[in-house]
Specification:
Elements (H helix, E strand, L loop, with lengths): L3 H6 L23 H11 L10 E6 L5 H19 L3 E7 L6 H9 L13 H13 L3 E7 L7 H10 L8 E8 L10 H7 L1 E6 L4 H15 L7 H14 L3 H17 L7 H21 L3 H16 L14 E2 H14 L7 H13 L3 E5 L9 E5 L3 H13 L2
Parallel strand pairs: 1-4, 1-5, 2-3, 3-4
Antiparallel strand pairs: 6-8, 7-8
Helix pairs in contact: 2-3, 4-5, 6-7, 8-9, 8-10, 9-10, 9-11, 10-11, 11-15, 12-13, 12-14, 12-15
Length: about 400
């Protein structure tokens, strides 16, 4: 067996692999200066001990939303310590902290040591939030993937309405979402109390991705390792697929790993093409495994019918691979019954379809004139057998 010394003594084509991570926040964020300036403008009143407006940031995965907000809040924290403004900044990943209770608990745990013990009710947390803000502190909470919060209406109402009872300080919210439609599911009361500023991050173009990848490759790989054509190809593939900078970085890292394993000193177009297949499979698995249970049941239903065949497949005007929304919903209800779960209404089912489409797992389209009646047609993006294998294991344990 090889030792760590032997592994570390081998020359690597990577200089610093952490620079190529999607979680790395570079000093300069190309093509996002305007967005950062807008976020800074919205949050700047906190430095004068005034409550900033609420802000909702939209954009597809890999458009720089989280990087920008993290960089701006780092600068806000520095400015706060310089001028003595009492500001608290809380970053919350709503995939992990996905309820009002858990989010309030995370916001307060650094100030209320007894929260480490279980058993405190929501009223206790709310009163502690009011107490903390009323001491003259501006509390800014960053809710990444805000649409994953189960009781989102209640959370928004609690955070926004808390300001009615705070005398000196305030509570502000920055929500980050991949879905432009996320507000559509809110009830009118919480929507009106939100009273937000909105900002949209557009996907990166091929030219922008090329510059981003070149910047990261220069820092992450040894000099001359990545051929310019390989960077251009990775950027072109990504812009055609999604404009997702994280996908582009994964392509480059995987191409580097494959080149290094083969003992090559350069990353070529061929390495990028080979990496593309591997990255797509890895991303599909990663995305699918992190979906909430109901989303996975819908995906399982789509994959099952895609394999067994639609009962409407012989209809004239229906393209190959497309399924009727109604038959998928029937399969979804049947799968819920097998799992002893209560199926959600068609309203929620449509939301699950929207989410799956946003993540690139399915495509939907209205039925054309050649098909009787109006419905939504659904087509699975990845391999149905691959999806079924992943989701079946998660839902049924094998």
């Amino acid at each position: 067996m090889a030792s760590f010394d032997q592994i570390l003594s081998k020359k690597s084509i990577f200089r610093d692999v952490s620079v190529l991570s999607p979680h790395y926040v570079p000093k300069e964020l190309p093509f996002r200066a305007k967005h950062m300036h807008e976020i800074m403008t919205v949050l700047s009143p906190a430095l004068r001990n005034q409550k900033p407006r609420n802000l909702i940031i939209y954009g597809k995965t890999g458009t720089g939303k989280t990087c920008c907000i993290k960089r701006v809040t780092e600068e806000l924290a520095e400015a706060s310590s310089k001028n003595g403004s009492p500001i608290t900044i809380n970053y919350v990943n709503c995939r992990i902290y996905n309820s009002r209770y858990r989010i309030l608990q995370k916001m307060l745990k650094d100030f209320v040591p007894e929260l480490e013990k279980a058993g405190f009710g929501l009223t206790f947390l709310y009163e502690k939030l009011l107490e903390l803000a009323s001491s003259g502190r501006q509390i800014v909470v960053l809710l990444d993937e805000i649409d994953m919060v189960k009781d989102l209406d209640e959370l928004i109402y609690t955070l926004t309405r808390s300001n009615d009872e705070i005398k000196k300080g305030g509570v502000s919210m920055v929500g980050i979402s991949n879905k432009l439609s996320f507000k559509d599911v809110l009830d009118p009361r919480s929507r009106s109390s939100l009273y937000e500023t909105e900002m949209v991050f557009e996907p990166y173009t091929a030219e922008q991705l090329q510059k981003i990848l070149s910047q990261r490759a220069e820092e992450g790989f040894e000099k001359g390792v990545v051929e310019p054509s390989a960077v251009n190809l990775a950027a072109a593939i990504t812009s055609q697929e999604s404009g997702d900078a994280r996908y582009a970085l994964k392509l480059l890292v995987k191409a580097g790993e494959m080149a290094e394993q083969a003992g090559r000193a350069k990353i070529t177009d061929e390495d990028v093409e080979a990496a593309r297949k591997k990255v797509e499979l890895d991303l599909t698995m990663e995305t699918t495994n992190t979906l909430p249970e109901m989303h996975q049941i819908v995906l399982y239903s789509i994959a099952s019918i895609s394999i067994s065949g639609s009962k409407y497949s012989r209809l004239e005007g229906l393209e190959s691979g497309f399924l009727f929304s109604g038959e998928v919903y029937e399969e979804y209800e049947a799968t819920c019954k097998k799992l002893r779960k209560r199926p959600r209404s068609t309203r929620w089912y449509k939301e699950y379809l929207n989410d799956l489409e946003t993540l690139g797992l399915i495509t939907t389209t209205p039925s054309g004139k050649g098909i009787r009646g109006q419905t939504t047609l659904i087509k699975l993006g990845p391999s149905p057998h691959g999806i079924l294998g992943i989701v079946k294991k998660n839902l049924f344990g094998g």
